[in-house]
Design brief:
Immunoglobulin-like, alpha/beta, globular, binds 1-deoxynojirimycin, 3 domains, 21 helices, 18% strand
Length: 754
């Protein structure tokens, strides 16, 4: 064991996440970043306004209501004219469209005494009208420029449609594919998730203060992605070290990127519901991370403190949440109903109320809403900037880049554009709605390009396409199997497009069985019997257990839910106009019993996977994933030269690492070169490996590119259970390669500061 702890950075007080050093950021640092300065005029305006406000009006600013019929949670407090008249509406969610929002703002301006503009929020998670691939899908591009660009494009569309604020990005680490909301995040790795969180925040807030960008919201604070058994909303019990090391860093990355709002999580964390957790929201987020924006609760989460059993009454629940640091109360109306009385009874401090109100008024001021409450309502912009050609082009490119080629035996893919007859089978071939995935905002079926259309667009009429649905998702009927079999037999190649329905993942959509639902595996069996090359295209929101499908398919493409440009992007990949480059950001297990089975698990006393010996293993399933984190094939091949690095870190704590990567195949292509590190001996048990850098590089066929990384030993520390960041000298394994399981290793020693 290393005896010297060379740097106890500090307690959580200066939670300086190891990832904060920009090891290999692909994100251009000089972005269009125009933050509105908190000037004297803002302070003066807000303070003067607050002097005019009654207590009721102040608490009203802390209250958010659903503005229409779209419910993204259970029944909640209803919006009424009386609330507007009494100045009790600070924000409205779930309404989009300039005309609709203008009406609501007008009503507020007419009815309320002080005419404080409403802040409008919407879940713009992966696009607004132009739907991009789901966040999990997009994470498989490992392309931070794409994340920035799609978030920016979504912000432009949403703001052109009157929205001020999105509830995104979701930055919850998810290591359990049973949890349906894995689809909304960036996967299982914290390092990658931090980079993506930063890119998405900067993208949404790209031009803050101008009516073409929106406030981002880091959610769900915190550890929502680790519920027991993967059941949404279930309690979370994890060590403080795991909390600090795995779940907190993406939130810290959002603060560092300037995120303006946070959302508290539904779950309890080690026995304390996040929405009533003062340590989390006040000590950590506000006092130590110095977060300047405001915190909104999740939907009815304040009221749900009663169901958690930590509050007996509405009043207790609202006090618990408010005193913990939740500035704004989403949907249940409890602040409006309870805080005034609590204040009169001396159970809440007026200074705290004023501080929360000030944060929200400042947010409104910074958007220019006091100058012009209708600033975001420009019908001409809405007509021209929503669903623009540039957004569609981006959606197609990103969707193709998100796809991960899992298998390609005998180079089945790409298919020739001159194939005579193609059978297209499966419930997702001709589907518009499901392929957008969960949280499709205001995405419309009519704008979606189906796989059938995409392939027809690509091949024209010269190729005969025989489409049969074959089966549904859950319907047990196999009636169409014989028709599907005949179509397959009469074709040169079979493309099966199968997977989950959109709402089999997402909020409250946990699954315990992760195989293809319904009769789809049986359909693939039938197709296989036709004896033609079988290409399986998967669309799903989470990693599935694909052992059987892997055996059935000659080629297997994980297309996720690609969004509006679905069919065009699938066709681009299948017919070689785009070369697959995506790599998994979540491990795909062999079976559900292995879950959680993430790549960066901690070491143990009896490692290995040796039959008949005492090792950490199941007796019935090997200790491996079917497809590991970081895995993904291309149409071309890459070969890696030897890792070049010294066997000792430099005195300044840095280590330069390089590797030559050669494209030895027949296509130009992109490779995601990954750098992992393992701490060989430490004062605490460390993961077997951890991602510490990556680079996505384009390499023309036949050429070699040198890829360089710089590691800093100070980024190789860890968080202990006292929540101290410790950096220890010693030997580190340096691993470089094409996936978490395909790596070459070298060792380098860091002797610590002299
Ligand atoms: C509940 C979800 O947990 C959250 O992510 C979402 O933003 C809100 N509902 C509002 O729809």
């Amino acid at each position: 064991m290393k005896r010297t702890i060379v740097a106890i950075a500090c307690a959580i007080g200066c939670f300086c996440v190891g990832n904060a050093h920009n090891v290999n950021s692909q994100l251009p640092q000089k972005r269009e970043k125009k933050e509105v300065k908190v000037g004297d005029s803002e302070t003066k305006f807000v303070h003067e306004l607050m002097q005019k406000m009654t207590l009721t009006e102040k608490i009203g600013q802390l209250s958010q209501y659903v503005g229409g019929t779209l419910l993204t949670g259970p029944q909640s407090g209803a919006l009424s004219d009386s609330l507007f008249i009494r100045g009790m509406v600070g924000s409205i969610l779930n309404v989009g469209g300039v005309d609709n929002l203008r009406k609501l703002q007008e009503k507020n301006m007419q009815l309320s005494r002080l005419k404080i503009p409403i802040l409008f929020a919407f879940d713009v998670i992966h696009g607004y009208k132009t739907i991009f691939p789901t966040p999990l899908a997009e994470s498989c591009t490992w392309d931070l420029d794409f994340m920035y660009e799609t978030s920016k494009a979504a912000a432009i569309e949403a703001s052109a449609s009157g929205i001020h604020w999105t509830f995104a990005p979701m930055v919850d680490i998810a290591r359990d594919p049973r949890w349906g909301r894995i689809v909304e995040g960036a996967g299982e790795d914290t390092y990658l998730a931090c980079k993506i969180a930063e890119a998405r925040v900067r993208g949404f807030q790209w031009n803050l203060g101008k009516p073409n960008s929106v406030y981002a919201c880091a959610k769900h604070f915190v550890a929502y992605g680790a519920p027991q058994a993967g059941r949404d909303y279930a309690p979370v019990d994890i060590s403080m070290s795991t909390l600090a090391e795995v779940y907190l860093p993406p939130f810290k990355a959002c603060v560092d990127a300037g995120v303006k709002t946070f959302m508290s999580a539904f779950n309890s964390l080690n026995g304390v519901p996040a929405t009533g957790n003062r340590w989390l929201m006040t000590n950590l987020l506000r006092n130590q991370w110095k977060f300047q924006g405001f915190v909104v609760s999740d939907w009815n989460a304040v009221q749900e403190l009663k169901d958690h059993g930590v509050a007996a009454t509405d009043e207790e629940a609202s006090l618990l949440a408010f005193n913990a640091g939740v500035d704004m109360n989403m949907t249940d109306g409890l602040y409006n109903r309870c805080l005034e009385k609590a204040l009169r009874e001396g159970r809440v401090d007026i200074k705290a109320i004023d501080a929360s109100v000030e944060r929200i008024l400042r947010a409104k001021y910074a958007l220019g809403l006091f100058e012009d409450p209708y600033r975001f309502f420009d019908s001409k912009r809405e007509r021209t900037e929503v669903r623009s050609n540039s957004a569609m082009t981006l959606a197609r490119k990103v969707a193709a880049s998100s796809m991960v080629l899992l298998k390609n035996s005998q180079s089945t893919l790409p298919l020739s554009k001159h194939t005579n007859r193609i059978a297209l089978i499966g419930p997702l071939v001709n589907n518009r709605s499901e392929v957008m995935g969960s949280w499709k905002a205001r995405g419309e079926d009519k704008d979606v390009v189906t796989v059938l259309e995409g392939i027809k667009n690509k091949l024209g009429s010269a190729v005969a396409i025989n489409y049969v649905q074959g089966c549904d998702f859950l319907d047990p009927s196999t009636q169409e199997f014989s028709k599907a079999f005949e179509a397959a037999k009469q074709s040169d190649v079979v493309i099966a497009v199968v997977g989950e329905k959109a709402l089999m993942s997402g909020e409250s959509r946990s699954r315990a069985v992760l195989r293809l639902p319904g009769q789809q595996e049986a359909l693939l069996d039938t197709l296989q019997k036709a004896g033609k090359p079988l290409v399986v295209v998967l669309m799903n929101g989470r990693p599935l257990c694909l052992e059987k499908v892997d055996k059935q398919a000659d080629a297997l493409l994980e297309a996720w839910f690609p969004g509006t440009q679905c069919g065009n992007a699938v066709a681009d990949i299948l017919f070689g106009d785009a070369v697959p480059a995506g790599k998994l950001t979540t491990s795909f297990p062999l079976s559900e019993g292995q879950i959680p089975n993430y790549y960066n698990y901690k070491r143990s006393g009896r490692p290995g996977d040796m039959p008949h010996s005492s090792t950490v293993r199941h007796i019935d399933v090997p200790n491996r994933n079917l497809y590991p984190f970081g895995y993904g094939l291309s149409y071309t091949k890459f070969s890696y030269g030897e890792i070049q690095c010294a066997n000792e870190f430099n005195v300044d704590g840095t280590l330069q690492i390089s590797v030559d990567v050669t494209n030895t195949g027949g296509y130009d292509g992109e490779e995601i070169v990954q750098l992992y590190v393992a701490d060989k001996h430490a004062s605490m048990v460390r993961p077997v490996k951890e991602l510490k850098g990556f680079k996505k590089v384009f390499i023309p066929k036949g050429e070699t590119v040198r890829v360089d990384f710089t590691l800093n030993a100070r980024d190789l520390g860890f968080w202990n259970n006292e929540m101290q960041y410790v950096v220890e000298p010693g030997i580190f394994e340096i691993m470089v390669g094409s996936s978490s399981e395909d790596l070459q290793k070298k060792e380098a020693i860091w002797k610590g500061d002299k």
